[in-house]
Design a protein that fits this description.
This protein has eight helices and twelve strands. It is an alpha+beta fold.
Length: 326
């Protein structure tokens, strides 16, 4: 009985040793596996977000290019040229409204004459005068540059007070495609400003799964920025280094020039975290299954060893009894 009790302790030691070794081995497999998959998922998520940001920039540039083409054609319209050159005095509003309707993407059109006259599409309230616009150095340089026919202005000041008769918040900013109008003698006779709302532009930026995903899109330029989400965190996203994490968002930035500005996005990391949790759960379940299997194997191995020891002890006991009976 004493020896059998001793073998029971041996059985437990064998079982615990095998189980501990298996646990360490599984941990050495599971922990690096989770770390490896997390790193792969993060790299893939970051790369995908950057690729989609780049494609979104291309789509947004095509959007603006279409407005530029429409405005370029408008600058060649005889009615515009005759009105700005003083050959006719009719209103340009019907023509400008028709252009906005045709384009669908232009928020409003303002035409400036060199004599200070201003013509607008319908619903425009208190557009800035040309002299006010020249308070901005970039627009003043465009007006003064004889070699420049066009310019894209990104600004958060000197903006029309109301579009479609609805007050407009300057903080939202505006994108204006500025085009010079030339007379028949080749001299500048006026300027056309086709306004684009940043929030319309942001609709082209879908960073994840081709759908709106809660990413914050920002366009930074000299003197200000546009943002799809005007929250307190926006400026923190703008100050942060690219490819870093701020809060629960990944900050990515494009190196492509966007009409004098730069575009960056604050992409939510929740989809990435969900994927990492999912794969981690699967790996842990596999580890738990392996541990259960090792538990059964360790018990079987410990039982086999102790049974063999018991059989050996029984044979030795029988041999001793035979020798003592002689």
């Amino acid at each position: 009985i004493i020896e059998s009790h001793m073998f029971q302790k041996t059985k437990k030691r064998i079982y615990r040793t095998l189980l501990l070794l298996a646990l360490l081995l599984i941990a050495l497999i599971v922990i690096p596996s989770i770390a490896m998959f997390s790193d792969v998922f993060y790299s893939t998520y970051e790369s995908t977000a950057k690729n989609k940001l780049d494609r979104s920039i291309s789509a947004s540039r095509m959007y603006i290019d279409s407005i530029m083409a429409t405005t370029d054609n408008l600058a060649l319209n005889p009615e515009i040229i005759q009105t700005l050159s003083g050959q006719r005095t009719s209103s340009l509003t019907p023509l400008l409204d028709a252009t906005c309707t045709y384009s669908l993407d232009i928020g409003a059109i303002t035409v400036y004459g060199l004599d200070g006259s201003i013509y607008t599409s319908s619903g425009v309230v208190n557009p800035p005068e040309a002299e006010e616009l020249t308070a901005r150095s970039d627009i003043a340089e465009f007006f003064a540059d004889r070699n420049a026919d066009e310019y894209v202005s990104l600004r958060t000041s000197k903006i029309i007070k109301a579009y479609n008769n609805v007050p407009y918040d300057e903080q939202l900013g505006i994108i204006s495609y500025c085009r010079k109008v030339y007379g028949t003698d080749g001299d500048v006779i006026g300027y056309i400003f086709s306004d684009i709302f940043p929030h319309d532009l942001f609709e082209y930026f879908n960073i994840a799964d081709n759908r709106l995903d809660g990413s914050v899109i920002m366009i930074a330029f000299s003197g200000g920025y546009f943002s799809s989400d005007h929250s307190e965190e926006t400026e923190e996203y703008l100050r942060a280094e690219a490819d870093t994490i701020v809060g629960s968002r990944l900050i990515i930035s494009s190196t492509r020039n966007f009409y004098g500005g730069t575009i960056r996005a604050a992409v939510p990391l929740s989809p990435l975290y969900n994927n990492i949790l999912l794969i981690s759960g699967i790996i842990l379940l596999i580890g738990a299954a392996l541990l259960c299997a090792v538990h059964l194997i360790a018990r079987a191995a410990a039982n086999q060893v102790t049974n063999q020891l018991n059989e050996l002890l029984l044979k030795m006991t029988e041999s001793t009894q035979k020798i003592n009976g002689l």
